[in-house]
Specification:
The protein is of the alpha+beta class and about 230 residues long. The protein contains 7 helices and 11 strands. It is elongated and about 65 Å long.
């Protein structure tokens, strides 16, 4: 079993799903106040995240105290929920932001890249399923429509390039990244393409170069259409 490293954020699950999000946030904040300074409470109402929440403290000691006090405890304030409380698997945005804007930006980019890599993995698994060969055309069309939004691709679309940007200038931004193949520019449209060997490498490159400045312009990086 993997051990989760102590951090300032605690993860609470098994919360009564009937509690409205605003009520849940305010209740958790009050419940956790005795254990330390609460910076943030994160909870969402969508189906996948229902019944869960994160509470961010300003110190690991506070988080540890909250876990010791609340784990496996029946909480009347949460409609009798017997909650399970552990350290969160990663630091919250609120915690990382205290280290500076650069650290927060890297933290967010890493999270987005991780999410896109998971989407890529899930897509590849679906493609490998033998049952897909027997799917009706209507069902195939439905699946395709679900995955057309911002699909991962090994070719990146580069937008907002300065008119004066040269091939060498743009290539220099990507050439040191793993799996880089080439950059192609379309000067008349102020766009270009950066190609990588694999889709996973393109995911990493996209997150590392998004918003990079080229001759005073912020680069917009997305996936090219397949």
């Amino acid at each position: 079993m993997t051990t989760i490293a102590p951090c300032e954020t605690i993860y609470i699950r098994n919360i009564n799903e009937k509690i409205k999000i605003p009520t849940l946030k305010s209740t958790l904040k009050e419940l956790c106040k005795p254990y330390g300074n609460v910076i943030d409470v994160v909870a969402h109402g969508n189906l996948r995240l229902r019944g869960q929440a994160f509470v961010v403290f300003d110190s690991i000691d506070s988080a540890e105290s909250a876990i010791s006090a609340l784990n496996s405890t029946k909480l009347d304030d949460l409609k009798g929920s017997v909650v399970q409380v552990t350290y969160a698997k990663s630091a919250s945005d609120a915690t990382v932001s205290k280290k500076g804007e650069k650290e927060l930006d890297s933290h967010v980019r890493a999270r987005v890249a991780q999410k896109e890599l998971k989407q890529l993995s899930d897509t590849n698994k679906r493609r490998a399923e033998p049952s897909r060969a027997a799917e009706t055309p209507a069902k195939k069309a439905k699946v395709a429509s679900e995955t057309t939004y911002n699909p991962v691709h090994k070719i990146l679309l580069l937008q907002n390039l300065p008119k004066s940007a040269s091939q060498d200038t743009v290539a220099a931004l990507f050439s040191e990244l793993p799996g880089y193949i080439e950059v192609r520019l379309v000067p008349a449209r102020q766009v270009g393409f950066a190609e990588f060997e694999t889709e996973a490498q393109a995911v990493v490159a996209k997150e590392k170069t998004q918003g990079a400045e080229i001759e005073g312009e912020k680069l917009s990086v997305s996936y090219a259409k397949k």
